[in-house]
Structure formats: structure tokens, C-alpha cells
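Q: What would this chain look like folded?
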Amino acid sequence: MSIKKQFIKSKPVCKVTFSIEAKDATSASVVGDFNNWSIEEGALNKLKNGTFKGVFNLDTNASYEFKYVVDGAYINDEEADSFKWNEFAGTENGVLVV
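A: My prediction, written as C-alpha cells:
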């Protein structure tokens, strides 16, 4: 799993690349505050090496709770900036700060 941040100097936007290795999975998404926890909006593309990857433009000066959904299972990214307890989910979510 990895998160790559690329800040755009001309706009208050950060291009965030999410990737997760899941060779045996058929689908993967990243869901969070930035896409209303929508699996469809957060769909990641599967690469030939078995990694799922996607790039999202996120507003800067903000923090977002998020998780990956791999074949229906919710997974945290150990490279998240921090973690926050979520009462609704009954578990921690990863937090991304941009």
C-alpha cells in the first residue's frame, strides 16, 4: 500500500495517488470523506502486476478519513498520516492530511 502526494502550485489542490497490492482481488476502491464513501467513485484500476491504483484531486488544507475496499473487505493503509476512531464503523479509519 502506498500514498503519494503531489501538490499543485497553481491551485489549492493535491494529486493523491492511492495504490494497494491485491493480486488475487477482482476489485478495489478507496473510499472516504472526499468521495462520500462511494465505492463507485473511488474505484481503482488494476495493473498487470496485481496492484490497484488511482489518482484523485483533493482540496488542500484539509484532512480526510479513508479506507480501501478490496473485494468487499475494508482495509486501512499503514502509510496513512494518522488514524482516527470512528463510532459508526466501530473501528479506526486512516487519516490523510493534504
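The beta strands are 2-8, 13-21, 28-32, 45-46, 51-59, 63-70, 73-75, 82-86, 91-97.
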